[in-house]
Amino acid sequence: MTAPIMTERRVSIIGAMLVAIGPVSMALYTPAMTELVRHFGSTESVIKLTLTLYFGGFACAQLVAGPLSDALGRRPVTIAFMGLYCVASLAAMLSPSVEVLMGARFVQGIGASVGVAISRALVRDLFTDDQSSRIMNLIGIILALGPALAPSIGGLMLPLFGWRSIFLLMTAFGIGIIAVVIFALKETVVPDRSRLNFPALGRTYKMLLTNKHFISASLVMGGALGAIYAQATFLPFILMNEVGLSPAQFGVSMLAQSGSFFAASLICRKLMGRYGANALVAPGLVFVALGSIGTLTLLMWSPSFLHVMIPVGVYSFGIAFVMPAMSTAALAPFGRAAGAAASLLGFIQMGSGLLVGSLGALMGNAVIAMGTLIPIMGATACLSFVWYRKLGPAVAKPLPDQVQGQRGPLTAQSTPVTAPDK
């Protein structure tokens, strides 16, 4: 028996840092959105578009980042994308107009997209089953700390140093992650440039999209976790414009969301040892359903701080129970294309947030948008889990261009290199 080249703890910490860069970049930015409306003499709809473009780059680029890492290796692809993120962050900081800011945010999303795809692929490269779910849970615990603190940090930095300082801090985060990748992340796949075959990549994605286990598990994740990203386009305008919070107060108020997720992740970690990760999904979706019902009441009564944030906190509490098992379930049958599967899972997850956030922007009224669209996402997660359960156990699937154990041009076996972690 050989041990993985990296321990659970190291993979969890590195994975959490990679996953967190996307939500942190979003959470740091949201307190500044109302200030940016005033600074550029723009409108709420245009500033919302800067967040939508970030989501667009973040969601779509994952479809490229994961397969690139299958072919070129996890480390070089991560460094390249994070370098792009740092350049875009500096461009956003120096933006002379809202148009430049919009472009910089789109490119920033492309750079940040590598985090979700690579972190899940790393876990799938080295671990499976309950061990994988345990790491996903620990990633969730660490991940909760960044978005929990980021709005508060952004809200406090805004009056002290101005909105440009927020993007300077993002640049520092990106440089820090590049340093961690260089000095702490070991390569987990054997690079094979012959896998840069786009027709084969298309066939791999077609195979994933026609796999009912993958789609049902991904829709559970999209409806549950995707709501976090959709809410980011609604909450700043509801809490600051409708409820009347200042940017600093808004930042602190977001602890109700991330703090709830963090507490649930700790509870989930205890329960996983006794009941297993799969048994916790259904209870988690009960909380998602309750949070959805609470959010639906925004259509009936005027928003207040508690009226908005209690349902948001309940919804987030449920997500922590859903994420470990369903992330593992979506990727489990696809070890030979872990990067592609992780990328498509991330695209569905973030893409659902992008779609719902864009629909909300078209609706114009943030309160009506949140009260209508977030409950739909919760219902999607619950119904998709019912579908997933009806399908029964998933089995490993052969990939396109794979014939009797021979490696195809894109989907060759991503064999983890194993050795003691020193």
Automatic annotation (TrEMBL):
PANTHER family: MAJOR FACILITATOR SUPERFAMILY, POLYAMINE TRANSPORTER 2-RELATED. Residues 411-422 have a biased composition (Polar residues). Pfam families: MFS_1. GO terms for cellular component: plasma membrane. It is a multi-pass membrane protein. This is Bcr/CflA family efflux transporter. It is found in: Cell inner membrane; Cell membrane. One of its GO terms (molecular function) is xenobiotic transmembrane transporter activity. Residues 400-422 are annotated as: Disordered. InterPro entries: Efflux_drug-R_Bcr/CmlA, MFS, MFS_dom, MFS_trans_sf, Sugar_transporter_CS. Keywords: Cell inner membrane, Cell membrane, Membrane, Transmembrane, Transmembrane helix, Transport. Gene3D superfamilies: Multidrug resistance protein D. One of its GO terms (biological process) is xenobiotic detoxification by transmembrane export across the plasma membrane. Belongs to the major facilitator superfamily. Bcr/CmlA family. Residues 11-396 form the Major facilitator superfamily (MFS) profile domain. The chain crosses the membrane at residues 12-33, 45-65, 77-94, 106-123, 135-160, 166-185, 214-238, 250-268, 280-302, 308-332, 344-362, 368-388.
